[in-house]
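SEVERITY: medium
COMPONENT: batch folding queue
REPORTER: lab tech (J.R.)

DESCRIPTION
The queue accepted two submissions in a row. Attaching both inputs and their returned structure tokens so the on-call engineer can compare them side by side.

ATTACHMENT 1
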Amino acid sequence: MFQRLKILYFGLFCFVLVFVAGCVSIKTQEEVSVRTIAKPERKGIYHKVKQKETLWRIAKTYNVSIDDIIRANNIPQAARIEKNQLVFIPGADTAREILVDVDAAQVEFIWPVHGKVTSYFHQQREGRINKGIDIQAQEGDLVKAVREGRVVFADYLTGYGYTVILDHLDGLYSVYAKNAKLLVKLDEWVMKNRDIAQVGRSSNLAYLHFQIRKNSVEDNPLFYLP
């Protein structure tokens, strides 16, 4: 009797082992099949950034929106692209040379004033989110138009001081604030590099508050400035 029970228990134990082994085998096969499914690859190429190339010019050259490039590369809003950085261009199939001919040079951006950036896009400044960048300068320094456009605002603006806003007629606007004096008038057409204001002083610091607005929404100026 004891021998029979022993044989019965041994047979039951072997059955359980076979059943469990079969389950493990099935699970493993399922995992392998999942792993072997190829993930779809993104269509596009990598562009190696050269000196003075801007995200705006790269987007223009490849005919891709800046927003698409920012999303594809997870570029932080407070960042700027650097020389030798690899930037993925979604949808592109061939690398292109960033060339600036005479006509294109007219729409390229320049810095409105030379100086150190003391506050970056979307950083906290005086308890508020900075909607542009602040460029330290000397009080009275001349502020330049970064690109040709029409003056759509030239007056005192609460919170911004004496301010100039240029419409570049392609959905982009440039904003120059915290000035001591304005040198242009409403509706005036100004060329790139034209003197439009003089840097003022605020909170014991002389600086220009500069913004780029795309369709009335603030954008990172460092994506446009060389």
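ATTACHMENT 2
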Amino acid sequence: MIAPTTSIQLALDEQLASRTAELFRALGDTSRVRIISVLAESEMNVSALAAAVGISESAISHHMRGLRQMRLVRARKAGRQVFYRLDDDHILDLFERGLDHVLHG
């Protein structure tokens, strides 16, 4: 990230701006936001996520593929099941700050 040299923040370079925009696009879907809200509480497998969010297992799998590519979630295999959790505390913080902003208004 670019560190400000004065009290005015310099503009992000194109690559960093593009990656940040991709992150917000990934969060721009209500199903993905609901998945993240459930994973903020605990690790879950696809079946449990589908039941909690109310969409099909295949839709969950589709969303998880994109969320993994964006490094928002992490997968862990246990036998034939795959368990997902948030990738790190930054994701939880981003989700909570967004939710706080929405609830503030």
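NOTES FROM REPORTER
The first strand starts at residue 44 and ends at 45.
No errors were logged for either attachment.
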